[in-house]
Amino acid sequence: MTVQLQTPVWRVLLGYVRPFRWVLVAGAVLSLMTGATGLALPLVVRELVTGLQSDQGVAGLLALMTLLILGNAAIGAYGSYLLERTAESVVLLARRRLVSRLLWLRVPAVDAAEPGDLMSRVTSDTTLLRQVTTGSFVSAVTSTLTLVATVVLMATLDPVLLVVTLGALLVAQVVMRLVIPRIRRASKQAQESVGIMGAALERVLGALRTVKASGAEERERDRLHAAAGDAYGAGVRAAKWEAIVGNVGGLVMQLAFITVIGLGGSRVASGAIDIGTLVAFLLYLIYLMPSLRELVNAATQYQRGAAAVARISEVESLPVETPGEPPSVTHEPASVTFERVRFRYQPDLPEVHRGVSFTVPPGGMTAFVGPSGAGKTTVFSLVERFYEPESGRVLVDGTDVRDWPLAGLRAAIGYVEQDAPVLSGTLRENLLFGAPAATPLEIDDILGVTRLSAMVARLPDGLDTPVGHRGIKLSGGERQRIAIARALLRRPRLLLLDEVTSQLDAVNEAALRATIADAATTTTVLVVAHRLSTVTMADRIVVMDAGEVRAVGTHADLVTGDPLYAELATTQLLATAHLE
Ligand SMILES: Nc1ncnc2c1ncn2[C@@H]1O[C@H](COP(=O)(O)OP(=O)(O)OP(=O)(O)O)[C@@H](O)[C@H]1O
């Protein structure tokens, strides 16, 4: 997925953080208070050292020190809890936003994406936002402030020693500038490899039987190992640069420490500063280190987060559907009209519909026949408005589908796809998927109609039996009938059945034909049919070939009137002769 981002990464990040700004400010203030109590300590120590030297009472100072230490710990703990909690909230927000986006993605965008990669963006990339929120934004602010305050306090103690310290800070800064872009690149690669792994996993686990039957386990393992290896390589590269940045910083500070001790010692000896001041200065130098480390950390976390944000924003910039008004409840059969519809799936692919026109009046049954690839399933996809025509119009009940509220349009339609998908969950969940408000009586009724009652009765848990991932525990015919039952339960105005009889045995097929005939009395039924027996009972047959409608008529009309149909009828449509 390569979508060019318009908004700079920090802006996108701020967008995620904005709802929590006040908690973050509170967390930052607490962090600063921790810093301030920490910074006050060396001053108290200096007084203590001076007090001890001159034999003054130091009980008060000791009590103040204890208070500062305890206060520092308590405020620090609460502050970091607040920040971590907020960071979790940012992740939650990002995940919810992504999920809300994903479910409404337009179908062409889904066609172009890898589900496993999309999944890794929701699960893995979002976790990186966690560190950015606390590790980056807040730390950057608080450690900068602490750093500045420390430096100011150091300046008041001894400007000469400060110059040495600033020199060290400058070196650390140069190193950071060199290394940080490399961390970002490595992080992006690591996240991309995780996405590739997700996609490869989804592909393999989704078709594990085929993988096994093809003996492809080892090859697929190698692909996955390679992706995992890439993620490892990129992760190690990032770790290497992070280690360099972190330790160069530490090294520079230690050198500064040694220099300050040497130089400071000689300044104490010459009487330029007293010993208490040197001790306090050294303590500040020690305090400087965590702030500096945090700043480096903030910068590296930001780079990691930036890589993740880029991947998250790519998903957020994909086109989504707007469901529109809630559907009105009517069950009248609907009409369907195609007016010179031209359509291609992608701009660089050939046309799949090359001026398709037909009209289906309300009610009755219409069969679509034609060679494989003629564009029959595409008719259904356009009626559902999964895609939009390049030119021409698709009308349902006389209204262009683009002018229908999407939710209303789809509520009017019951659609059984070619491979009749069943979702993991129980049978009941599958049946109620399209009609959550259906009553037990209606379910019973539909089970009878789709000849599922006997099968359900045989199951120990009846309707509450889990069907397995994609209904793997069901037979192909059972899956098809459940998909049909699910569509019928919606009491649709328009029923789209794509090759629903293909996997049924003769008895069930005859039963289903009766069901379809029954449905056609109250609903408009469109079927893509591969069985002659289904086609012959249709009120009208639309013969499609190479993206065009060749002929429309009844079986009797077409057998004599259309050579392609006559050929299909004798050679390609599956005849169930013994039942006819
Ligand atoms: N999502 C898609 N992206 C790109 N091309 C597609 C997509 N779906 C279908 N096609 C192409 O569009 C053409 C028509 O497909 P369609 O599924 O409408 O044919 P069909 O008549 O239903 O065929 P069959 O009887 O084999 O199911 C085919 O050449 C197919 O390769």
TrEMBL record:
InterPro entries: AAA+_ATPase (IPR003593), ABC1_TM_dom (IPR011527), ABC1_TM_sf (IPR036640), ABC_transporter-like_ATP-bd (IPR003439), ABC_transporter-like_CS (IPR017871), P-loop_NTPase (IPR027417), Type_1_exporter (IPR039421)
This protein's UniProt keywords: ATP-binding, Cell inner membrane, Cell membrane, Membrane, Nucleotide-binding, Transmembrane, Transmembrane helix, Transport
Major localisation: membrane
Any GO CC annotation of this UniProt entry: plasma membrane
Entry's Gene Ontology molecular function annotations: ABC-type oligopeptide transporter activity; ATP binding; ATP hydrolysis activity
Membrane topology reported for the UniProt record: Multi-pass membrane protein
Cell compartment(s), UniProt: Cell inner membrane
Stretches assigned to the ABC transmembrane type-1 domain: 25-304
Stored PROSITE patterns: ABC_TM1F, ABC_TRANSPORTER_1, ABC_TRANSPORTER_2
A Pfam family it matches: ABC_membrane
Ranges of residues in domain ABC transporter: 336-571
CDD domains (alphabetical): ABC_6TM_LmrA_like
Entry superkingdom: Bacteria
Transmembrane region(s): 20-45, 57-78, 137-155, 161-180, 244-263, 269-287
Similarity annotation: Belongs to the ABC transporter superfamily. Siderophore-Fe(3+) uptake transporter (SIUT) (TC 3.A.1.21) family.
Protein name from the UniProt record: ATP-binding cassette subfamily C protein
Taxonomic source organism: Actinophytocola oryzae
